[in-house]
Amino acid sequence: MVSSYWEYANPTRFMQTSGWLLPVVAVLAVVTTAVGLIWGFFFTSDDFRQGSTVKILFLHVPSALMAINAWLMMLVVSLIWLIRRHHVSALAAKAAAPVGLAMTVIALFTGAIWGQPMWGTWWVWDPRLTSFLVLFLFYLGYLALWQAIEDPDTAADLTAVLCLVGSVFALLSRYAVFFWSQGLHQGPSLSLQAGERMDMAYKLPLYVAMTGFGLIFVALVLLGTRTEIRARRIKALVARERMG
Amino acid sequence: MIALLLRDLRLAVRAGGGFGLGLAFFLILAVLVPLGVGPESALLARIAPGILWVGALLACLLSLDRILALDYEDGSLDLLATAPIPLEGVVTMKAAAHWITTGLPLTLLAPVLGVLLSLPAPAYGWLVLSLALGTPALSVIGTFGAALTVGLRRGGLLLSLLVLPLYVPTLIFGAEVVRRGADGLSVATPLALLAGITLGAAALLPFASAAAIRINLR
Amino acid sequence: MNNLGCARGGLPLLEGVSLRLGAGAALVLRGPNGCGKTTLLRTLAGLQPPLEGTISAPAEALAYAAHADGLKPTLSVRENLAFWAAVHGQRDIAPALTAMDLRDLATRPAQNLSAGQKRRLGLARLLVTGRPIWLLDEPTVSLDTASVALFGAVVRGHLASGGAVIIATHIDLGLPEAQELDLVPYRAKPRAMPGGFDEAFI
Fold it and tell me: pTM for the whole thing?
């Protein structure tokens, strides 16, 4: 019986639980994403102004959402590492970064593909696009710092500090970028107070696709964390061997 | 702590290179840009604020890895960490010394380079003011980057990669002040935000830098 | 210091080291290269956290002298020493210069000193810290016989004035009263560490 959530912070316990959780989440992620995307792409009507190009939003919006959520998750687990020193949380942050980076790239590319027919250009220095580009740079720096430091605990500490400081500056950059340019980008596609901005026929498959991307993220982070734990285990075993 | 500041300044003067390199880089950049984009004054006047700010930022970046690396190599950083001065104070003084040897000369040189780039007359005052307010933030943020990478062998390039994204807000508000000044618009908002970033960074980042140094010295 | 354990590079290195040092006492750490003398001294100096156990000496009482002397090549001997004195809130550097026989070199830039002279300057720094407990890591490296004797006298003077020293060295400093501590028996055995180091992954 699990007495506290922190028990999952024990590597062995995490490996046991994630061992059966990972396949379940992975299957769910594939099914949900497939349903969301096929529904969105083939079973919705074209927009009366934007035509069929609008359907790229079923890729664009979920990936943009996960790009930001991945950083938020890294921030939370970095704090957990700094405060409670659970190794799994540091490794989860390390595992989440490449996934977040990939989501950012997908959001940028789909945005460019969407923007080309709409705005007549692949790239504009629109504040939303620009802040994603800046987020991309933050992910690059964070990953580069992980790569550069050999000692795993030092790397975990320093990247966690960078993540905290980087979060503040990423937020500042976002406000700075909005101050700097007013932009062409349409407002948030899903907004609660703005009323019926989007048709229900679009919203439902979009929600499904967003859930799918969220599950993909969880599955990839679980997989990445398991890989990191195994790598650390090998290192520890080699070290023990050497000490004889 | 004053002793540390004085020592760092004295070292910068004796070593020579510290002052000159960043300034020379700034000058060369201001010469190369017109060679690249063409001699048309109207175009240069439009891009001058951005070029001057980006140039100052890159010139600042050049000397960042020297802030802590030399002290790390010769063991001074170990001894400073065990000295009665708090490490937060040490990094603040290091950033101050970096600003006096880099940011301050850049601020003073910038108006001269403004002439080369046909900067509009009303913008000169705002250029100096925005650099004077903004470059301390560059030094403080740079010291944080240097603290993160102090133990690494190939720290220099990584340092740029870590620090440049952190420079984004400072650059945006700093250049915006000069652009608005050149157009004769009100500069109050970006100026206040720029000052806010500098003060916030100077107040809070030394704690993060000191933490990073402690981790790196372990 | 009580039941201290410390690690290097994520690996536990020493465990169960306990010692107690009174005023005027000297302790010499012995052991082959890589057995953890430097790690122990760095832990004592507060540069790295102990894996387990406690250090009861206040950090303000400890002065650490590492392999590297922390000298700036472009500053003169006097300037280097005056800086460290100022950092520790001391003013007078003349006794330290005299004690380490650096008076004639005072205006020479540190880059023009020989290795042994640099070492003497690095050790003179201890005198201007005004701290009672010295942690010395191989203090006699590159010193000649006369300088070793000179430094031995300085250490003895420090002990006589109520200080204490912990020295990691292979050379006899001429301190007959010093206790010796061999670190080899304290070598850490592989086991799960309480702090959850890499062993937690096995």
Answer: 0.88
